[in-house]
Design brief:
This protein is α+β, with helices and mostly antiparallel strands and 504 residues long. It folds into 2 domains: 367 residues, Beta-lactamase, CATH 3.40.710.10; 95 residues, Beta Barrel (Lipocalin). It is built from 14 helices and 22 strands. The strands form 5 sheets. An 8-stranded antiparallel sheet has the order 1-3-2-14-13-12-11-10, sandwiched between helices. An 8-stranded antiparallel barrel has the order 15-16-17-18-19-20-21-22. The longest helix is centred in the N-terminal third of the chain and has 36 residues. 50% of the residues are buried.
């Protein structure tokens, strides 16, 4: 998600984007002494391998933090039966306190799979049908041009209306009800279920469905159905619940140094389902491990069935790109293909001053999270969660191949032109975000914004309608985006950062 108070340059930048190791005891079957000794040696070898990998991760994070002036970060990894949770740097450059595994960050859009998990608990209890229209649960709900939009389409980002709406509907318990009512005012971009376009607003609609079913506020429903049962004791939505805790302040980089901006912390309550959760590396890794498990919670009691967990990461909606190529979204989880065929289940989180990554690989029994407290954080998140570095290091998997291609002038002309997207802030009129594409040297030069805030990137094709992104000096951005054509085969949209920019 992007913040309504960002400059256009910050808006586009966002679009394109301790504790030590703990060895968990293994339960071994009865066996011969020789076999037991071999098993001990194998476990020791795996533990040493994990230790070596964690050391490489430390080096990578420390180097990137220094390079990009990121004051603080926390990481959590689950690998070969071991947890590795560590903090780096400080929570606040003005009043430095060390970051550790319990430090609290805003997790941004990693709030979405929390909302999706809450919805799936209700599905597992027989109280919610994902393929039913939203209006079944929220009487009077009206979406623009889409009266039959389903709860699933809200959760897999195919609802079709403008998704970047951050208007503030107050701090009261009726905030989501008011916000959901206002969805009828948003422009409809496409028929529900036909395209993927990242949609914050639709997740808040799903949050209102959760309220209607449980007869609780969204935050109380998440607490009782997810946070408490899973054991996420440090995860919250409201700032008054974390007074006295170790909290990561948001920073910007000014004159090559991190500067605290306290105002970055504030978000409207209506954004809680799609971006308002507060959590720690410990809790986010616990959340990932829950999704790798069989549906039991911290006390060994069932939270949801394993079939429901698997359903969250299957049956994807329409595919496309969200920094990486996607098969599509399941229930608030993106399903990411790899060159080896193994699926990665992934999400990211971006709010001003706080950027994070979260993924797990069921076939590898691996999970990882990263939290940062700077507007420079996407640089590290992209290196670890969008590029191949961490994926290859820990799982041996890689992104789908992307061999650069150059197109002639006639082919580039099909994509050239001006594109625009819209965003609604806390208050005031909508913000129009212009993009212009120009053919140059077999690639597309992308000008983001206008005037002194304009930035330039380069789009290089690697297959029909798909490009990877580089900085103007050729430095890789790691991100991928794509173009969407209309029924006549003409380029209609640029999908950049998961959102649709309409061609003018």
């Amino acid at each position: 998600m992007q913040h309504p108070h960002l400059t256009r340059r910050q808006f586009f930048k966002a679009s394109a984007i301790g504790a030590g190791a703990l060895a968990l005891p293994a339960v071994l079957p009865a066996t011969s002494p020789a076999h037991a000794a071999g098993s001990v040696r194998q476990r020791a070898a795996r533990a040493q391998q994990a230790t070596d990998l964690f050391a490489q991760l430390d080096d990578k994070i420390n180097a990137s933090m220094q390079k990009h002036k990121i004051p603080g970060a926390a990481v959590g990894v689950f690998l070969n039966g071991q947890e590795y949770i560590k903090g780096y740097g400080v929570t606040n450059s003005a009043h430095p306190t060390p970051v550790d595994g319990d430090t609290l960050f805003r997790i941004g859009s990693n709030s979405k799979p929390v909302a999706g998990t809450t919805a799936m608990v209700l599905v597992d209890q027989g109280k919610l049908n994902l393929d039913a229209p939203v209006s079944r649960y929220v009487p009077g709900f009206r979406a623009p041009g889409a009266p039959g939009v389903t709860v699933r389409q809200c959760l897999n980002h195919s609802a079709g209306w403008l998704g970047y709406d951050y208007h503030d509907t107050g701090r009261g318990d009726d905030a989501l009800a008011k916000y959901t009512f206002d969805v009828r005012k948003l422009p409809q971009l496409f028929k529900p279920g036909t395209l993927f376009s990242y949609n914050n607003a639709a997740i808040s609609v799903a949050g209102r469905v959760i309220e209607a079913i449980t007869k609780q506020t969204f935050e109380d429903a998440v607490q009782s159905l997810v946070f408490d049962p899973i054991g996420m004791a440090d995860s919250h939505y409201f700032s008054d619940e974390i007074i006295g805790d170790n909290i990561a302040a948001g920073h910007v980089v000014d004159k090559d140094a991190p500067v605290v901006v306290p105002e970055l912390w504030t978000l409207p309550r209506s954004m809680n389902p799609f971006g308002g959760a507060i959590s720690s590396a410990n809790d986010m890794l616990r959340f990932a491990r829950f999704h790798l498990g069989n549906g039991t919670g911290a006390d060994g009691k069932k939270v949801m069935s394993q079939a429901a967990l698997q359903a969250m990461r299957s049956n994807p909606g329409p595919g496309g790109t969200l920094l990486v190529e996607l098969d599509g979204f399941g229930v608030s989880w993106s399903i990411r293909p790899t060159a080896e065929g193994t699926k990665v289940i992934q999400h990211g989180g971006d709010v001003p001053g706080q950027h994070s990554g979260l993924w797990f690989v069921p076939e590898k029994n691996f999970g990882m999270t990263l939290l940062t407290n700077s507007e420079a954080g996407p640089n590290l998140v992209h290196e670890l969660f969008i590029g191949d570095w961490a994926l290859a290091l820990f799982t041996g998997l890689h992104n789908l191949p992307a061999v650069p291609q150059t197109l002639d002038a006639a082919a580039l002309a099909a994509y050239e032109g001006k594109y625009t997207a819209e965003q609604i802030g806390f208050t005031g009129p909508p913000i129009n975000a212009p993009v212009e594409l120009r053919g140059k040297d077999g690639r597309l030069e992308m000008i983001l914004g206008e005037g002194p805030d304009a930035a330039t990137k380069v789009l290089t094709f690697y297959k029909d309608d798909f490009v990877f992104v580089s900085e103007s000096d050729g430095t890789p951005d790691y991100a991928r985006c794509d173009f969407v054509r209309d029924a006549q085969g003409k380029v209609q949209w640029l999908r950049f950062g998961g959102r649709l920019f309409r061609r003018q």
